[in-house]
Structures are given as structure tokens and as C-alpha cells.
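Reopening this ticket.

The earlier resolution said the output was attached, but the attachment link was broken on my side. Pasting everything inline this time so it's all in one place.
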Amino acid sequence: MRSTRTTGLCIALTACGLTTAVADPLNIAKMGSMEAGGRVIECQTVDGGDPNNPRQTPGRLVIDQVYASYLYPQDQRYPYPILFNPGGGHTARFYDTTPDGREGWLTLFARAGFPTYGVDRVNTGRSGSDICKLNAVRLGRAPVSDIPIANRYSAEAAWINFRWGPKFGTPYANTQFPIEAADAYYPQTLTTYRDPAETQKSVAAFAALIDKIDAPGVIIQSWSSSGLLGYLTAAERPNKVKGILAVESSTSAFDDIPAEKKQLLAKIPIVIMIGDRAPDRVEASRKFQKEMAAIGGDVTLDVLPEAGIYGNGHTLAAEKNNKQTMFRLIAWMEGHVFNTDKKAGQPASPDEPPPPIIPNSTSGSGANRRAN
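Inline output:
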């Protein structure tokens, strides 16, 4: 009787147009979280308000680590986990529920058969932050110059820089960002340390995370400023990183990759996905694509408006067509990562058999393809 009443209520609500689509259950084999990397320091300024606080004894702290949550689906169809890295000003929260309440890439890719990891970079989000220098400055024990460079996106900056519209409060007519939910997005942004030294800290900790994951290989997904972190980390672990999904890499990233690191990246297939209204990103990525092709690399440039997909901005994973863009990335992986005969145009190495592709994996580039 209870089920009957519930069904009747659902029918009534549907008739009124008040319900939203409910996803099928996601069967999880295991989930959890971990930290990786980092170093131990002696911190004498653990309390910036009262250096004599008896509850805050100076001593050892772990800093410069990364945090990652993970989810392995029961129906795992692919052997390599995808490590999702946020851009500056964000945590892996960005890949979770979208601002308008839809599923994000962490669970959508899991439904498609991939283990997923949500990574918070060094000094960001759940990785924690180094407060010793901040407190030292606060207590007058260190110069003001020891305060790390940090910034955070304002609502006005996000609107323009993420290409939701030409000016704050005015969206593009075809924007894919759920503009009605912008107020739900803004709390996701947070402070990011921007000192040059942060790059190597994050690369070292990210490489340690890859070492810690028990899998035959991993796929790095990066976004915006984490693009450079992904490329540099892959060059540190070229035998473990099997592919890179680079979404909207920063235009300066490619010039910041040393030549010897690019030689290592030539062994790893890369796709760079770019949304609408980003000619500078397209130009920089095409230059990188040609440079890598000259040394035997496999770099694919997926410029969405060139494929007839319009209105995407910088925040692709949270936008209305995030399933469509996900399926494009999966289709690319099936052709470049899992079919190793297509990798960099070379046949598979005889001593490294290609990983399996499960026949019932669901992927494709069409907007109407759905994960099980």
C-alpha cells in the first residue's frame, strides 16, 4: 500500500512538472580517501592568536600533501582509475554535484565503469594548508614577505573569465553553464596559494599519490591551471600514466614544460578539450600539438565549437552537457589509451599487452548516449 501511495504521489508531481530525473542506483565496490606525499616540519607557531596556548603545543606537522577521495564501481569496465584534478580556486568538489543539482564527473565516469579519484592539490581544501609562516608573521616573528601569494575568484571574475557571459550578470544566449544556479556555485571557490614553489610541491605529492594507487596505470584529468601540474606529473611517472584528459589547459602551461619533459610526454596520449570563445587556448594548444607531433607524440585537440557543440565556457565539468563531453572523452580513450595500436601511431609493444576493453562499455560522442 505504501508503494502504491508513493507511486501515485510521483505521478501527481510529474503531472505538475515538479520532479527532476532520478538516477539509477550506483553500485559501489569500495570507496574511501587517502593522503599522499608531504613532509614533516617543526612548527613553533601552531597558534597565531596565543603562542602559549596549552592545547596547541609546538611540534611536528605534515604539510605539502594531497588528499584524494576514491570511488570504485561494482561494474568496473576499465582498468585505469581517472584522477580528477581541479583548477586554481577549486577543490575536487567541482567534479561532484553540479550547481544545479545534476551528477558531476566523479559519479558519471564511475557509472561508465571507471574508478574515480577526486584530488585536492597541496595547500588547498582537504589537503590542508601550511599556517606556520602565516602565524609567524601574525606574531611578529617573520617578515610580511613570508605570507604566501594567494587569491580567490570573485563572482564578477568567475562570470567573465569562465566565459559564461560578456559582462557580469549578462549570460551568453547559448551558455551551457546553469546560470540560474550561479549563486550555488560561488561558495565552491576558495583560496589558492600561487607562489611558484607550489607547482613542484603539487607535482611531488601528486606523483606520490600515483605511486600509492594499486592499479596497472592511471589516467590524469586536469583542468585549467592543473593542466601544467598534470603534464609535469605525467612526465615524472611516464610508465604509470596511460593518458591525459586536459580540459582547458592554461595558455602558458605548454611553455612551462621543459623540453626533456616533453620527450617523456610523447609516450603518453593526450587530449585537450576546449570550449567556446577561447581562441587563445586553441592557438596555444595547436602549437603544442604540432610540437609534440614532431617528436612522435599523440595529442588530440577537441575544440567543441568545431565539432558543432556551442556555448561551453571554462567550467565544462559543471555545465549542462557534461554527459556529452564525458562521452567524447571516453570515446577518445577507447581509441587512444585502450587501443594501443593507435597510440602515437605505433603498434603495441610485444611485452606490454593492451589492457582489456569490456565489450559492454558505453561510450560515444552523442548527447543522447547514456551510462548504465
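Reporter confirms the inline version is readable. Confidence is low (pLDDT under 50) at residues 1-20, 340-372. Residues 217 and 240 are 5 Å apart (CA to CA).
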